[in-house]
Design a protein that fits this description.
two-stranded antiparallel ribbon, two-stranded antiparallel sheet, 56% helix
């Protein structure tokens, strides 16, 4: 009887592990062979998504609740902000990408998944574009937001805040996987 229970437990554990949904950016996608403005910018998005993936991978409830002393955001509020910025980037790039769950109803895992999918949609749209000027925001025929502002605005902001999440989790006793190589965008096995 104990052996049957052990076999069934192992089977359920194995099925549970294998049924986990694979999210983008566990590793940075293969690099394009030729350099262009589009490929370079898309690579920046892929790199920030990789950093976000690993900053948020395996966060616990205590990590999400962690807040440094002072008036700053806690980890969960920082992650909410990163989700909002990922949606803003989709709007700036004129990408209508379906959000699977309303923000107010999202769990941490759903928000993390949607944020990663938003980054992937943005990167794919940039790679498929003919010219980055397609993403320039115009109002009344004049440039109101040059796409370069996306680099020093939301892209830099996401990198900054992903670093905060990494710092928060280290402070709450759950550092990032030491096998992650941010330089190569890979994970040692």
């Amino acid at each position: 009887m104990k052996i049957k229970f052990l076999i069934i437990s192992i089977l359920f554990f194995t099925l549970g592990v294998n049924s986990q949904e694979k999210l983008p950016y566990h590793q940075i996608p293969k690099m394009a062979e030729k350099y262009s403005g589009q490929n370079t910018l898309a690579r920046m998005v892929d790199a920030l998504a990789f950093r976000y993936y690993w900053a948020t991978e395996g966060l616990r409830a205590e990590d999400l609740a962690y807040q440094p002393k002072g008036d700053g955001r806690n980890c969960q509020r920082t992650i909410n902000h990163l989700y909002d910025v990922s949606n803003m980037m989709l709007r700036l790039a004129k990408i209508n990408f379906k959000q699977t769950v309303e923000k107010e109803k999202m769990t941490f895992k759903e928000m993390r998944k949607q944020t990663l999918l938003n980054f992937e949609a943005l990167s794919n749209k940039i790679k498929a574009s003919r010219n980055l000027s397609e993403f320039t925001i115009k109002k009344d025929g004049e440039i109101s937001i040059p796409f370069f502002n996306v680099i020093n605005g939301p892209i830099a902001d996401i990198i900054w805040h992903s670093g905060q999440v990494a710092s928060f989790r280290r402070s709450s006793g759950n550092p990032i996987n030491s096998k992650v190589n941010h330089f190569t965008g890979t994970v040692r096995e």
